[in-house]
Specification:
Distance between the termini of chain A: 72 Å
Number of strands of chain B: 0
Helix content of chain A: 40-55%
Strand content of chain A: 5-15%
Helix content of chain B: over 70%
Distance between the termini of chain B: 34 Å
Radius of gyration of chain B: 23 Å
Largest sheet of chain B: none
Order of helices and strands of chain B: HHHHHHHHHHHHH
Chains: A alpha/beta, B mainly alpha, C mainly alpha
Oligomer: heterotrimer
Largest sheet of chain A: 5 strands, mixed
Strand order of the largest sheet of chain A: 2-1-3-13-6
Shape of chain A: globular
Radius of gyration of chain A: 24 Å
Shape of chain B: globular
Number of helices of chain A: 19
Number of strands of chain A: 14
Structural class of chain B: mainly alpha
Strand content of chain B: under 5%
Chain lengths: 435, 275, 298
């Protein structure tokens, strides 16, 4: 009886504490907003987990808040990458609100511009920063700026630029008697993988398989295929597209030299030395570097024989979604801060993302020292002239088109359908989706 | 015959042991990885004892994040949700079991049918309401739509139905009021069910992340599952050892509660059982 | 006098259900009607134009082979989960209570522990542990010369593994609940049967099952209700419904339609169908199962 009652009163004490504690918390919260009252408070939505520059975001926001007289930024982390951010943005918009500045993944370029209110960065500059009219033209390469452009104009400014590179396990290559400089073309990748399998019984290659087909598109592009034509029609089921996919499918299904697992598992298998080569984003650089115990290096994305390499730009652009003048002004002030040379350098060092600005890589307060110390990122920097937009299928069904590409990858690599048929069916299906 | 019997028992024990290993291995794997460095977690998959145990992962999360706030938030949300759900479910179940009223069957069916409403259906409408009330980025905004629960009503009604009606009739004759019957007769008989349902509510709320992700913005308002999400990234890679150390922190509190209340819980179960 | 008391009782009853009713009405029932309304629209939730399309969303769902694939998956999931999370703990609790009696509390405590862990963590753990190339299980099997199948990309197998992950979490909770129910059967009945040398399986089927059926139904229903919602998390973390919808179920698919592809109308139609399906199951349960339940004391 006694024990029961002490337990009971303990429980009620706990509950009482729970009810009172947050009230105390509210008080201190109130103070915080009181102090910041003079400043315009804006929200910056990002997708950067702590392993993907999250700490750098916190640092940049803190530094900015410390030096800005009239703006205070609150950073909101959105789990589950650009898809997760888009879900939250969707809910926020339905509630009639918006954050001020958001990171938008490239695959959402079209969907975002069709469905959300945004401020063209040129307009923001004209309005809030007229003294620096040529900021975009002077500081960004035209092919990079174009990544964030649609028929509607400039939607935002490229921010996180990721690029697929080929990571090499030099120890495995050595053991298999292969050149430690790695393969020069995808045809050689296939040969390398066969030798690795024969000599070491390990897998030769893993190509990333997330919930998008970025890497697979890169393969097709590097064999001279086009994903969509000028009119927005899907054309990837061309001879070149099929040939590129066939090589990859053969490695998985016929040679059994390429691994076909989800992204996480594939990367893990490479890092603990079970796969010779890994084709994935440069953003995995620090994960690979910290995890691997073997000699690891990276080379630029290879082309197919007789074609130039092409890399679709991954990552995101920043778009101003603020609706009021004051918020827009504050958003631009913060955005410009993020694009300053030191901030860009901080960003690249933390993430491996290639800076979209021209002058960061060589600047003294930029990346000069960092690149010297981290040769892997050089392969990504070197291939920036080969960057092309990651196909964002146009129209309201663009996201369904991307899903069809994923389903097609499953069908091909699962051996359920031959490459040519699967790609042709997908192309037909995508072209029949309502625009 | 006895030899045969004890051999059988041995076989069953062996089988149960296999079960224990299957249940515990992932937990041991998590514990051991929370003390490993990133490189070791990748490279020594098999060893459950870290080569060079490090507290670094724990230090990282406690120094870079407002962990005390975060643990408190998680605790407040889970406790409020549990208490409210139990109270509202209990009264509703009591009404459905012991009173006959117009629309009773309809209401019951309506309530129970809501169990099957997928959360995708309610996510956006609930977000709109919470936002209109001005509870975005506030832990009470997370709690608000979860003040009652159809599963609780269903399970408690099932349990109360096992109480013989005669018991209630007798108490009525003794002129004990409704609240008196509820407190002194029905509650003691249903306590095991209340406890087990309460545990379920608490654990589910404690580990919830889809809904809080939508509502909470500031790190100071985060809950533990959201902190876990901060270290999971497909693009930048997941920091497995740190994720595991957060999981350990997340596990430890329900575990302490379980151990602390265990005798109480086990007793209530075995005293009357869920009939 | 009698009538007054009945009226008073009615009033109390309404007071008791009103808190739940209000919350349900606002946060669950209204959204369901709203969803029903959305299922007749072509809309993405935020665009200013809502296009009324009548039954088109339903028609296109019924014409889509993927819908049937997912429906079948859903029932396979239910079947596996019922075996893993209802039948298995049932048998185990019987064994622990009546066949071997030593160590009951120890087993009970330990088996419950995984129930505390979130499924996100569980899914992450299993992605590592069951990594078919380099995980601990793969390494052990490799030493025996066995190569693990790539389960996440194998139709059929992927359903089983995702169910196992879910079951790792749910098993312990169901187990202690069932154990409580089973241990409540008067010991004399079982002893008498044992004296008569009735085989164990018959004791289980003919005495234990019927006499603990109230608890059994509870766990049975919970397994069905929560199973699909629980299995959502490993699907989302590990396969996103793939390969080619082989691991998707009704709930994940409607999530994917609504929050990945923003086809609100089709997602709403699918949710409506799901809801109808489950209400039918519920109605069947009310109609046929409830009556046969054994309540001690009645």
């Amino acid at each position: 009886m006694n024990i029961r009652w002490t337990r009971m009163s303990l429980l009620s004490l706990l509950i009482a504490a729970v009810l009172i504690l947050p009230l105390a918390g509210c008080g201190s919260n109130g103070n915080a907003t009181g102090a910041a009252n003079k400043k315009t408070v804006i929200e910056y939505w990002h997708v950067n987990a702590q392993t993907q520059g999250g700490q750098a975001v916190d640092q940049l926001v803190k530094d900015f808040n410390a030096q800005s007289k009239d703006v205070k930024v609150i950073a909101k982390y959105n789990p589950d990458m650009y898809k997760g951010l888009m879900q939250n943005l969707q809910a926020e918009k339905a509630a009639g609100k918006t954050p001020a500045l958001v990171q938008v993944g490239w695959a959402y370029l079209d969907y975002f511009s069709n469905n959300f209110g945004y401020m063209d960065p040129n307009e923001a500059i004209n309005k809030f920063d007229p003294s620096d009219k040529n900021f975009l033209k002077d500081k960004f390469l035209p092919n990079i700026l174009d990544l964030a452009k649609t028929s509607k104009g400039q939607i935002g400014i490229p921010y996180s630029l990721s690029s697929p590179i080929l990571y090499l396990n030099k120890d495995i290559l050595k053991q298999a008697g292969l050149s430690e400089n790695g393969p020069k073309t995808w045809q050689q990748v296939q040969q390398f993988a066969k030798v690795i399998k024969d000599k070491t019984q390990k897998y030769g290659l893993y190509v990333q398989e997330p919930a998008d087909t970025w890497a697979q598109q890169s393969l097709m592009l590097s064999n001279g295929a086009q994903i969509i034509d000028k009119n927005g029609k899907a054309t990837f089921a061309s001879k070149e597209g099929i040939q590129a996919y066939q090589l990859y499918a053969d490695m998985v299904l016929k040679d059994k030299t390429a691994l076909h697992v989800p992204w996480d598992q594939g990367v893990t298998a490479f890092i603990n030395g079970n796969v010779g080569m890994l084709y994935t984003t440069v953003a995995q650089m620090s994960n690979v570097e910290k995890g691997a115990k073997f000699n690891v290096s990276a080379i630029p994305s290879p082309p197919f024989e007789g074609h130039p390499a092409k890399v679709p730009a991954g990552g995101s652009f920043l778009a101003i979604t603020a609706q009021t003048d004051a918020q827009q002004k504050a958003a631009w002030e913060f955005e410009k801060y993020l694009y300053s040379v030191p901030a860009m350098a901080t960003w690249t060092e933390a993430t491996g993302y290639v800076p979209p600005r021209k002058d960061v890589a060589d600047a003294k307060d930029g990346l000069k020292d960092f690149v010297a110390k981290n040769p892997m990122i050089k392969s990504a920097l070197d291939q920036m002239d080969k960057a092309v937009p990651w196909t964002s299928f146009p129209g309201n069904s663009g996201l369904q088109a991307e899903q069809a590409m994923i389903d097609t990858r499953d069908k091909i690599l699962g051996g359920q359908e031959p490459v040519a048929k699967a790609l042709k069916d997908a192309q037909t299906q995508i072209n029949q989706l309502e625009k | 015959m006895p030899a045969n019997k004890s051999r059988n028992a041995l076989l069953w024990h062996l089988l149960l042991l296999v079960f224990l290993i299957l249940a515990l291995f992932p937990i041991l794997f998590a514990v051991s990885n929370s003390f490993k460095t990133l490189s070791e977690s990748y490279n020594s998959m098999l060893s459950l004892i870290p080569g060079k145990p490090t507290f670094g992962n724990y230090v990282t999360i406690f120094t870079t994040l407002p962990m005390v706030n975060i643990i408190l938030n998680t605790f407040i949300i889970a406790t409020l949700v549990t208490v409210f759900k139990l109270v509202t479910s209990y009264f509703a179940a009591y009404a459905f079991t012991f009173f006959r009223f117009t629309g009773e069957k309809m209401f019951y069916f309506l309530f129970v049918a809501t169990i099957f409403v997928p959360f995708t259906v309610v996510m956006i409408p609930n977000y709109l309401i919470v936002s209109k009330i001005g509870l975005l980025d506030n832990i009470y905004g997370v709690v608000l739509p979860q003040l009652c629960d159809a599963t609780g009503i269903f399970l408690l009604t099932q349990t109360m139905r096992t109480i013989p009606k005669s018991l209630i009739e007798v108490s009525k004759l003794d002129n004990i009021g409704t609240l008196g019957i509820l407190r002194d007769i029905v509650f003691p008989l249903t306590r095991p069910a209340v406890v087990s349902i309460g545990i379920m509510f608490f654990i589910n709320s404690w580990n919830e992340y889809v809904w809080p992700t939508l509502i909470l913005k500031n790190q100071a308002n985060f809950t533990l599952p959201l902190v876990l999400q901060m270290f999971i990234s497909s693009e930048g890679g997941t920091n497995f050892p740190i994720a595991m150390s957060i999981s350990m922190v997340t596990m430890i509190i329900p575990l302490i509660l379980y151990i602390f209340f265990q005798r109480y819980i086990l007793n209530t179960f075995s005293q009357s059982g869920i009939k | 006098m009698e009538r007054v008391s009945i009226n008073r009782n009615k009033l109390i009853a309404y007071v008791f259900i009103i808190p739940s009713l209000v919350i349900f009405a606002v946060f669950l029932i209204w959204p369901v009607f709203y969803t029903f309304y959305l299922s007749f629209l072509n809309w993405n939730m935020i665009s200013p134009t809502k296009q009324f399309v009548g039954l088109n969303n339903y028609v296109s769902l019924f014409q889509d082979p993927i819908t049937y694939k997912i429906l079948i998956n859903t029932f396979i999931y239910l079947g596996i989960l019922l075996i893993l999370n209802c039948l298995l703990p049932y048998i185990l609790s019987f064994v622990l209570e009546y066949v071997i009696t030593k160590g009951k509390n120890f087993y009970k405590k330990v088996i419950f522990i995984p129930s505390i862990v979130s499924l996100v963590v569980g899914s992450m753990l299993y992605v590592w542990i069951l990594n078919p190339v380099s995980g601990p299980v793969a390494i052990i099997f490799k030493h025996m010369g066995i190569y693990l199948p790539i389960w996440s990309n194998t139709s059929g197998l992927v359903l089983v593994v995702l169910s196992l992950i879910t079951s790792w979490k749910v098993f312990g909770y169901n187990f202690i609940v069932l154990l409580a129910g089973v241990s409540n059967i008067p010991a004399g009945v079982i002893e008498a049967a044992k004296m008569d040398n009735v085989p164990l399986y018959r004791i289980f089927l003919q005495i234990v099952l019927p006499m603990s059926s109230a608890t059994g139904i509870y766990v049975f229903i919970m397994t069905i209700v929560q199973g699909l919602q629980y299995v959502f998390t490993p699907i989302n973390v590990i396969t996103q419904g793939g390969p080619n919808y082989a691991s998707s179920n009704l709930i994940y698919h409607s999530y994917q339609d609504a929050f990945v592809l923003y086809k609100t109308g089709e997602s709403a139609a699918l949710s409506t169908i799901t809801l109808l399906l489950f209400v039918c199951l519920l109605w069947l349960e009310f109609k046929f199962v409830e009556k046969k339940v054994y309540y001690a004391g009645k």
